């Protein structure tokens, strides 16, 4: 960028429009909290300046300082040259307005289960009746935290195999002051839980199949492969979760699991299981719910 063109960047709106143009020209991939160049540019601008992220319009005439201008230009360049997802560049991600610390030790927070928790759309009855919740493959801890907020009388166990992800989750739990209700465990799925039982198990496990892994855009390759890859059909971990969940559910407990595009392979693999598919405004057939009684009956 020439000195003349830099001098024309005066307001936040100038930087925002520049980012949108450059992101579109670079044909970036999205899906880490935004779905298009406009929303990506707005998130990058607002979070970089620690402004409320919901709407950039009130801030378009703001005049960044020289240091802030330099930071914005660096972030725009990095987003394009590195194809790094914006949340990793900024160290933060949001789900329904709730902020989480994030870095490359864990998957960037995004899950349709989060939508279901926030909207109260899970078929589990009165929230106050949920006393124990398990979050498998917790990563950054985002779903465990949303579950704690959705079920205010519940204690949450959250499990992950990655020590790095759990360190990040610990930071998020502390930031939301939920350390007295959320306990983090390191281990392989149910292994560290002994004979604990839960009213609800939630999981956003690795579910990308081999074909999907081969076609991942560069942005997704910055995320931990262990948090994405799940074998030829994407069901390696889901099979284990279905097999072991009944041992850890209370009599009236249930399992909620996100599987991406794995619905058809799952229904072929388990034709006798009566999966209930929980759709959201942004998804269809990507999250299933099943009661313990149906898992045991099978």
TrEMBL record:
GO terms for molecular function: nucleic acid binding; protein-glutamine N-methyltransferase activity. The keyword Ribonucleoprotein applies. Pfam families: MTS. Keywords: Methyltransferase, Ribonucleoprotein, Ribosomal protein, S-adenosyl-L-methionine, Transferase. GO terms for biological process: methylation. PROSITE patterns: N6_MTASE. CDD domains: AdoMet_MTases. The keyword Plastid does not apply. GO terms for cellular component: cytosol; ribosome. Residues 129-210 form the Methyltransferase small domain. It comes from the Bacteria. NCBIfam families: hemK_fam, L3_gln_methyl. This is Ribosomal protein L3 glutamine methyltransferase. It comes from Enhydrobacter aerosaccus. The lineage of its organism: Bacteria, Pseudomonadati, Pseudomonadota, Alphaproteobacteria, Hyphomicrobiales.
